[in-house]
Amino acid sequence: MATLGIPTPLSHLVERTCGGHAERVGLLASRIAFLLNVDVELALIAGYLHDVGKVGVCPSVLNKPGPLTALERQAMQHHATYGAQLVREGWPGAPAEVVTAVLRHHERLDGQGYPGRQTQLDPLTAVVAVADIYDALTQPRVYRPWVLAGPELVQALFAQALPRAPLLALCSLVGLRLPEVRGQRQAG
């Protein structure tokens, strides 16, 4: 990722905290971005950096196999704000859109996301959010060793209060079949 202008120390933080996840999200975000005419390079960078703030989360919280307490959840949610701060400080020339995507990749259209309970997502942030949730649902996690696939995955994705366009682009890319709606097949 250094060839994309990301400073090496920032890349090392990403690799130390969430290497495989960061790479998968970056690559998938860039593919979704291409389909939606969103800047592919910014999507790759933002997807790669989106969870860098997890370097500031206590490993016992990051690796906890069970449900998080309210305080642990708050500490985990702080990773978005801390990540944006790390990108701003570790890469003074970082594109503003990348910093925004790192900060807001857990926001949702229903206002139930974090850190700001926003109800709108810019296109780059939406692309990163969709790539992130897809990877989270299709890779085993310490707190959830099972993964979703097929109709259950589609249902979980569309329940995330994220913009439809990147969700439909994702489904097209990964070959997910959309459910029938009111006797008609959804476009996508």
From TrEMBL:
Q: Which Gene3D superfamilies match?
A: Hypothetical protein af1432
Q: Where would I find the HD-GYP domain in this sequence?
A: 1-188
Known EC number(s)? Answer: 3.1.4.-
Write out the GO MF terms. Answer: hydrolase activity
The top EC class is hydrolase
- Could you name the domain of life of the organism this protein comes from? Bacteria
Q: What's in the keyword line of the UniProt record?
A: Hydrolase
- Spell out the NCBIfam families in the cross-references: HDIG (TIGR00277)
What's the protein name? Answer: HD-GYP domain-containing protein
Q: Which organism is it from?
A: Deinococcus petrolearius
